[in-house]
Design goal:
The chain has 6 helices and 13 strands. With about 220 residues, the protein is α+β, with helices and mostly antiparallel strands. It folds into 2 domains: about 90 residues, Response regulator (Rossmann fold); about 100 residues, LytTr DNA-binding domain (OB fold (Dihydrolipoamide Acetyltransferase, E2P), Beta Barrel). A 5-stranded antiparallel sheet has the order 8-7-6-10-9, with helices on both faces. Helix 1 packs parallel to helix 2. The two termini are about 30 Å apart.
């Protein structure tokens, strides 16, 4: 699974399609040989697609005839042997970027407790979250919701598309329209503080977000 922008990965290897499926683990990217002992790569890929339409599949084979079957499985790439190190690197880097994009496209929801009830908010609709005393104010595109919770806990839930720009603010990078060394402007003209010592870190985080398929309002 993809760990961070440095492209560190956890890698598992399997000797057969049966062994791979028996592991019953989710993967962001799967490289499959087509000709294997027992279950072939095409059948293994069909099993993967039954459970996960979002996994990136890449076939590695010496046979061109399977190309059309691979297309039916929405395969990301079809590598013909012998595969050079440079070609493998190019395809792998493309797959990493695509995996990052697909992760960000998955709709995230935030469940919070207000004074009277528990509600679910689409993360896409959140502009920023502000810490106020022992509560948080969630500023969305439609309203401001006051809830019980800690900013750090919400940051962990929302993931890397949100950035903690100040001890009191968490911003949705999808709604950034402008930034300076000491502030960030969001959709609708809302402005939040950016700690100056965090400026360089913020720029790196925002560049990662854009390079991995995030939309820019800037």
């Amino acid at each position: 699974m993809i760990e961070n922008q440095k492209q560190d990965c956890n890698v598992d290897c399997f000797s057969s399609g049966e062994e791979f499926l028996a592991a019953a683990k989710p993967f962001d990217i799967i490289f499959l040989d087509i000709q294997m002992d027992g279950m072939n790569g095409i059948d293994a890929a069909k099993k993967v697609r039954e459970k996960n339409a979002d996994t990136i599949l890449i076939f590695i084979t010496g046979i061109k005839e399977y190309v059309f079957e691979a297309l039916d499985l929405y395969v990301f790439h079809y590598l013909l042997k012998p595969v050079t190190e440079q070609k493998f690197k190019e395809v792998f880097e493309q797959a990493l970027r695509e995996a990052g994009l697909r992760k960000m496209r998955r709709k995230k929801q935030l469940f919070i407790n207000t004074r009277n009830k528990g509600i679910t908010i689409d993360a896409d609709n959140i502009l920023y979250i502000e810490s106020v005393s022992r509560k948080v104010e969630i500023h969305t595109t439609q309203e401001v919701i006051e809830a019980y919770g800690a900013l750090g806990e919400l940051e962990a839930q929302l993931g890397r598309t949100f950035y903690r720009c100040h001890r009191g603010y968490l911003v949705n990078m999808a709604h950034i329209t402008e930034y300076k060394s000491d502030c960030i402007t969001l959709t609708g003209g809302n402005t939040v503080y950016l700690t100056k010592k965090k400026y360089s870190e913020f720029v790196k985080a925002y560049m990662w977000y854009l390079q991995n398929g995030g939309a820019s309002c800037v």
